[in-house]
TrEMBL record, chain A:
This is OB-fold domain-containing protein. It comes from Bradyrhizobium denitrificans. It comes from the Bacteria. Residues 19-44 form the ChsH2 rubredoxin-like zinc ribbon domain. Residues 56-114 form the ChsH2 C-terminal OB-fold domain. InterPro entries: ChsH2_C, ChsH2_Znr, NA-bd_OB-fold, Thioester_dehydratase-like.
Length: 128, 395
């Protein structure tokens, strides 16, 4: 299994809730209440309308693999990926697996939270 | 409305160095400025507009950067434009220079670009990390280790998945670049390579091989864009921008197509403004940070349909005199030069060489009157600036 320890995110006041939830094992998304669309990455205004009429909600933590790339010569090797969440938006993440060769675009994945360098947990994904 | 005749590119100069251990970044800017002005037949004192981007020394320092460069170069200006969009910036600067000249803001516009990452031993990854630390998306990206190569790797992976594109087809883009580079004495990689050579090189970020990547080089280039009255007083061939486009493609809150770059918009706008279509273009300079970059731009600009790029580039499709569209006849970023990890300037310069008939005879497109240059600055699989220029040589 991948043992890479990710660098820790530099948390902004407007995203503190996202990272606090991650430490509790919950993936939060932000929703634009005017359009009903979920978006990522989170920010307090809607990237679709500019309105601040937005809210947090808890995502299902499931999605499908949209694209990925493995760095085979990194120590240890790791897989970067875009995952298309069940709620709509695509997010950048890592895929954790013992078998990079078996990964296929379109396959279902689910969230798992991994401690970063300073202990802050960050959402990554594993094949279902 | 076509921009034809509103301004002319009369000076173009590419620094011959690829490894500038004994030159400062400022000196490189000064040398390319002098080179382009000499090429135009103009002097330092003629310049009244200056265009530069984030590669000038001191960019990050308050009150320095572009202002410092103006002083260092010794320019006396009426117009300054520091629009930054990484490797695409310089194509955008040409468009801005045309606008500034047409608006009477300046008459002789100088655009410079330079970098020395090879001398400084700074990897594109390190340079990317340095830039991204304070950006809004950094906390949602840095933990996952995007290092340029793997972000482009995702584009290639998706293209293969969606369209059945093969590693062999991507390799043909490098093969074409190497065929051109063998004729360029300044190119970093002059050896002609085969599809098999590309496939045999180590995987850098799946599915991209080392030879799918551009070189890391020092150097730079400069352009001089002038008012029509000045252009007609000089002896250089009359190369005029007739269509331009600029766009910022970003991740749009998580709703994006990784294979639709900003070129979809900029190509449409530039071709509409120029009143020509992709099949009219005789030569194209396409940003080639990686082989996949070229493939996506060919499709997005309309040289072929989405998903057809692999077949378009295969079997020498991009080799001058052989294929259907000569691309990057200087060897491009893949084999010749990618100064400062910013390839847009050299893209314009080779297009100007082709239109003047000054490319190497082995790669010169016969009677080249219409050329396109396109830059993708930033990252194809994430946020980037796209800039398209369509250039015409007047009879």
């Amino acid at each position: 299994m991948d043992t890479r320890i990710p660098p820790s995110p530099q948390v902004w006041p407007e995203t503190a809730e996202y990272w606090a939830a991650a430490n509790e094992g919950r993936l939060l998304l932000r929703r634009c209440c005017d359009t009903g669309r979920a978006y990522h990455y989170p920010r307090l205004h809607s990237p679709f309308t500019g309105s601040f009429n937005t809210e947090w909600f808890e995502a299902s933590g499931t999605g499908t693999l949209y694209a990925f790339s493995v760095l085979p010569r990194a120590q240890p090797p790791y897989c970067i990926a875009y995952v298309e969440l069940a709620e709509g938006p695509i997010m950048l993440t890592n895929i954790l697996t013992d078998d990079f060769d078996s990964l296929r675009i379109g396959q279902p994945v689910r969230v798992q939270f991994v401690p970063s360098a300073d202990g802050q947990r960050v959402p990554m994904f594993v094949p279902c | 409305m076509s921009l034809k005749g509103q301004a002319y590119i009369v000076g173009a100069y590419e620094h011959p160095t690829r490894h500038a251990v004994d030159k400062s970044l400022g000196q490189l800017h000064a040398e390319v400025a002098a080179g382009a002005l000499a090429d135009a037949g103009l002097s330092w004192q003629d310049v009244d507009g200056y265009f530069c981007a984030g590669d000038v020394p001191g960019w990050d320092a308050q009150g320095a950067g572009p202002l410092s460069m103006v002083e260092y170069l010794g320019l006396r200006l009426r117009h300054l434009d520091t629009t930054e969009s990484w490797g695409s910036a310089y194509l955008n600067h040409v468009a801005h220079a045309v606008q500034a000249i047409a608006a009477g803001k300046c008459r002789v516009a100088l655009i410079t670009q330079a970098g020395r990452p090879r001398a400084e031993k700074v990897s594109p990854e390190a340079s990317h990390r340095q830039q991204a630390q304070t950006a809004a998306e950094a906390q949602f990206e840095a933990p996952y280790g995007p290092v340029v190569t793997n972000v482009y790797g995702m584009c290639a992976m998706r293209h293969m998945h969606q369209h059945g594109t093969t590693a062999e087809q991507l390799a043909w883009i490098k093969v074409a670049a190497s065929h051109h580079a063998q004729h360029n004495p300044h190119a970093m990689l002059r050896k002609v390579v085969s599809v098999q050579d590309v496939l045999d090189s180590p995987i850098v970020a799946t599915p991209l091989h080392r030879l799918d990547c551009c070189v890391i080089s020092d150097g730079g280039g400069a352009l001089v864009v002038v008012h029509p009255e000045i252009a007609r007083s000089l002896t250089r061939p009359l190369v005029t921008p007739i269509g331009t486009g600029f766009a910022v493609k970003h991740l749009n809150g998580g709703y994006f197509d990784i294979l639709a770059s900003g070129a979809v918009q900029t190509g449409r706008e530039a071709f509409a403004q120029a009143g020509v279509s992709p099949s009219d273009i005789q030569y194209a300079s396409l940003y080639d940070s990686f082989t996949i970059t070229v493939l996506v731009q060919l499709e997005n600009l309309g040289f072929c349909a989405a998903g057809e790029g692999g077949r378009f580039v295969a079997d020498g499709g991009l080799i001058s005199g052989v294929g259907r569209l000569p691309v990057n006849t200087d060897g491009g970023g893949l084999c010749s030069n990618h100064p400062g990890n910013r390839g847009g300037m050299t893209k314009v310069i080779e297009a100007v060489r082709q239109l003047r008939g000054e490319a190497h005879p082995a790669v010169q497109v016969r009677n080249c009157r219409l050329a396109l240059a396109h830059g993708t600055g930033g990252q194809l699989g994430a946020r980037h600036g796209s800039a398209t220029l369509i250039l015409e040589r007047e009879a």
